[in-house]
Amino acid sequence: MAEHPERDEITGRYTTGHEWDGISELNTPLPKWWVWVFYISIGWSVLYTIAYPSWPVMSGFFGGATGWHARASLEDSLAEAREARSEWVTQIAARDVPAILEDNTLRSYAMRGGEVLFKENCAPCHQTGGAGAYGYPTLADDEWIWGGTPEAIVTTIQHGIRNDTDPDARSSEMYAFGEWELLTEEEIDQVAQYVYDLSHGEMNAGPGQDIFVAQCAACHSPDAQSPGGEGNKDLGGPPLNNRIFLYGGTKKDIAAQVYKPQLGVMPSWSGRLSDEDIKQLAVYVHSLGGGQ
Amino acid sequence: MSLIKHHKLIETNVFLLVLGIFVTVIIGGLVEIVPLFSIKSTIENVQGVRPYTPLEVAGRDIYVREGCYNCHSQMVRPFRDEIERYGHYSLAAESKFDHPFQWGSKRTGPDLARVGGKYSNEWHVRHLINPRAVVPESIMPGYPHLAQRPLAYDTIDANMRTLDLVDRFETYSQVDGAIENAVADLEAQATPDADTSALVARYSDFAFGPDRAEDQVTNMALGDLDGNPDVITEMDALVAYLQVLGTMVDFTAVDQTRKAEWIR
């Protein structure tokens, strides 16, 4: 290593004075402004640790001179948001869903809120706009399994369906007619044919209908005149007289459902969403097209 | 600069060089280690948090193995918009049994800290096999192999013993019979209509104390979770894990005075 910095002949700049085997290092100092920003940042960070929660001390940590706390500042911003919304939220809290539906301004407020909540919480199953998917009912039509009145919708959202977290969840179970050997393969074939025809608008008397009346009508229609037609909202048996199916509408799908049924599960929302949120969702779902 | 002038001295003297490195490492070490001395004071005192059941531990291992943390965080930060979307902000207490914790720093997908109970088991299975089947615009990869692979769980008790060791014997050693019955507990949790009373009682006692009221039971997903009752698959384990996330603390039961302690 050379002891003294010297001028490099080619570039005309000074070297750092370091030299290894004849190769020496040019001295290219950092710009002054950069060096100052660096020193100021160090000073700033020291002040910062004094102002805000930082250094560990034996039984905890130094809380900072300003007394700022992430969770306390959160409570403030939550309170601010509550305050900003309170005018609407108190009105929603004070009324039931039919009353909200009647008041145009309140209803449009609830629709907006409901739409946002629906996208985050419900669309992964019921799809955007309640369009429905295999196993998840369409909420935008007027066929209802558990009921399309505002009260029924609120109950469904609050408690969910067949989940094991909410004791008040709606529940009902269709028998596994094939697996439990309640019906023979031939009978399943006949009743599946009856349901298939029914879904295409033909109610055909015959062995299929007899089996249906004896085995299925109780859950699928309280009306003896139209076995399968009405659906049974108390027992969650869907109407079967149209081509809206959860689990497919071919004869094979229907026979599979009779052999060993699939049963839809929906989580309960009362622990996750506030009452006001659930009301807004109910307004939104009710207004999608099929509310009763 | 003076240091520039003198660094020749350090660079040419091995003793000084080693000393310099040593001092630097010590400073780094102190900054990382000293805060741990007071870590207990940063963990909130809440009821309900318990170690994962054997099936959940297995599921958590699959979560880590598959790299889900590359796209999903598990921490609801204390900001208004996060709370309105995901629910109550995460507490340190909620991940005190997580080794390593899954807070994450990358959110290609949503935060999962409160995903437990948000969907049905059947939804999770369909979503994990092919996310596009339920969320058409999803960019999450599918994990169909999980539903096919039987879960390897014969070493689950050793796994739990290690976690217990890491926690200085404050987890599974404190759950009565957890390690001895690990395999039986795992099978009970994933088998439809199995007798799960011992399993549930064990972990509920830890969560709420042995004097808990009878209806104070800890939440866990029970039964056949993946739609295939014949085998316990990796899917069963992963769904059990996802369904417990964020459900241990009942925030509606946390009173305001206790909450004020978190906000010093």
From TrEMBL, chain A:
UniProt protein name: Cbb3-type cytochrome c oxidase subunit
Pathway: Energy metabolism; oxidative phosphorylation
GO biological process annotation, one example: oxidative phosphorylation
A GO CC term attached to the entry: plasma membrane
Keyword Metal-binding: yes
Taxonomic placement: Bacteria, Pseudomonadati, Pseudomonadota, Alphaproteobacteria, Rhodospirillales
Annotated Gene3D superfamilies: 6.10.280.130, Cytochrome c-like domain
Organism per entry: Roseospira marina
GO molecular function: electron transfer activity; heme binding; iron ion binding; oxidoreductase activity
Sites where the protein binds heme c 1: 122, 125-126, 266
Alphabetized UniProt keyword annotations: Cell inner membrane, Cell membrane, Electron transport, Heme, Hydrogen ion transport, Ion transport, Iron, Membrane, Metal-binding, Oxidoreductase, Repeat, Respiratory chain, Transmembrane, Transmembrane helix, Transport
Automatic annotation (TrEMBL), chain B:
PROSITE patterns found in the cross-reference section: CYTC (PS51007)
Pfam families: FixO (PF02433)
Domain Cytochrome c residue range list: 54-207
Stored Gene3D superfamilies: 6.10.250.2250, Cytochrome c-like domain (1.10.760.10)
Coiled-coil residue spans: none
Any one Gene Ontology molecular-function term assigned to this protein's record: heme binding
Membrane-crossing segments per the record: 12-37
Key words of the record: Heme, Iron, Membrane, Metal-binding, Oxidoreductase, Transmembrane, Transmembrane helix
EC number of the protein: 1.9.3.1
Taxonomy, superkingdom: Bacteria
Protein name as catalogued: Cytochrome-c oxidase, cbb3-type subunit II
Gene field: ccoO
